[in-house]
Amino acid sequence: MASQQEVKLYGSWRSGFSRRVVIALKLRGMPYGFVEEDTQNKSADLLKYNPVHQKIPVLVHNGKPIAESQIILEYIDETWPGYPLLPQEPYDRAMARFWAKFIDDKCLKSVVKASWGPVDEQEKAFEEVQENLSFLEEEIQGKKFFGGERVGFVDIVGNVIGYYLGAIEEALGQEMLTKEKHPCLYEWAHEYTSCNIIKENHPPRDRSVDYFRPQIQASRASN
Amino acid sequence: MASQQEVKLYGSWRSGFSRRVVIALKLRGMPYGFVEEDTQNKSADLLKYNPVHQKIPVLVHNGKPIAESQIILEYIDETWPGYPLLPQEPYDRAMARFWAKFIDDKCLKSVVKASWGPVDEQEKAFEEVQENLSFLEEEIQGKKFFGGERVGFVDIVGNVIGYYLGAIEEALGQEMLTKEKHPCLYEWAHEYTSCNIIKENHPPRDRSVDYFRPQIQASRASN
Asked: Can you give the residue range of the structural domain that contains A201?
């Protein structure tokens, strides 16, 4: 049945949001086609499929588009059987949604501000990053993954911390997630990036560092 | 069984986010206790239950807290049987989540910016409001409610447009949602505020206007 379905993902190799969907589809064992988008010159298809935000990722299932990475993950979880992304119990599901939202709304925003933001706001943003990571530190304590014994919804959304933060730190020449301050989260990031599914489906670290470096330099130069 | 459960909502009469949870619990027929929070002087309970954001609403079910209004609505939908908030089909669910997120991330932010934001950014924000409302106009076309024939997830989240925008407009002395520009959305707002469940569980319009007016005046004075 799955083979009769047309599943296309519009994304970009460098987008952590696209990577989340890739990971979810791979975990689910769902075959799909990947359309690499040039975010500087968006395709007519992307603009048609996501007229509101005009952003990747967009998953198109039998011609019907779904945008926003976390919403796509929920859709995958509800549509095809297989590896579960969200936990089963309503309270655990609510907690997973809470932390995933926290990662996007708070952690990621503070990391971006500390790395690319106006220079005079970077110090404050760096403190916010530390505070946000401390909340995640508390949450991951005593667990291998946010999803328990295996990678789940929050881990996949957490790729921006588990994978991309390391590349940003290297491009920036400044650490944010350290073994001293956030030992459990640091260990989680290590476990996470060591998983085959994550390693195989994220760009090589050097390539991400090379992508972030000029952006950081341009932002510093313009400040 | 329901009567053996302890359900407490920490909220505020004036918060649209709290009202969403009230509406969902009422539609679901779930008895609950309401704890009115003074957002200027937050209770120890609120800080304990939502240490990350320290914000209302928080639903506490048998001692376990859930924060963030949309996440609480999903929890209610998954926990107790009764009136369904989200649609049943995965694609429809994804669309409902998409529009609900759009309302919070885009519409509401542009309304706040146009009303309370820095004076020199208000004109641009006003245009953003118009553009955002146009997307909702397109989505509601041909339907009574976003949920179809009856109030659903998007309608409940949409209280910030359906109910509160009117009060903000009145306090501001400027219309944003007009019959001329957005006839279907305008009609939806009318239908929505005419529902007994909405009327009975939102503060009287005058009280909301009185709440918004000094905020708008203070913001204008400080600009």
From this structure: 90-222
A197: exposed, middle or buried (C-beta count within 10 Å: 0-12, 13-18, 19+)?
middle
Domain count, chain B: 2
φ and ψ of A10, to 5 deg: -90, 115
Of the candidates A68, A90, A98, the beta carbon closest to that of B67 is on: A98
pLDDT digit string (tens) for B146-192?
Answer: 989 999 999 999 999 999 999 999 999 999 999 999 999 999 999 99
Place of tokens 């107790």: B80
DSSP annotation string for B10-62: EE-TT-HHHHHHHHHHHHHT---EEEE--TTS--HHHHHH-TTT--S-EEEET
Q: Is residue B164 in some structural domain?
A: yes
> Which residue on chain B is closest to A138 by alpha carbon?
B52
Q: What is the pLDDT of residues A112-132, one digit of tens each?
A: 999 988 889 999 999 999 999
Do A211 and A107 share a structural domain?
yes
CB contact at 8 A, B180 and B186: no
Structure ipTM = 0.96
Chain B touched by A93 (CB under 8 Å):
yes
Using a CB–CB cutoff of 8 Å, tell me whether A47 touches chain B. Answer: no
Q: Are residues B116 and B187 in the same domain?
A: yes
Q: Do the domain assignments include residue B84?
A: no
Domain boundary, last residue among B58, B79, B100: B79
CB contact under 8 A, B67 and A93: no
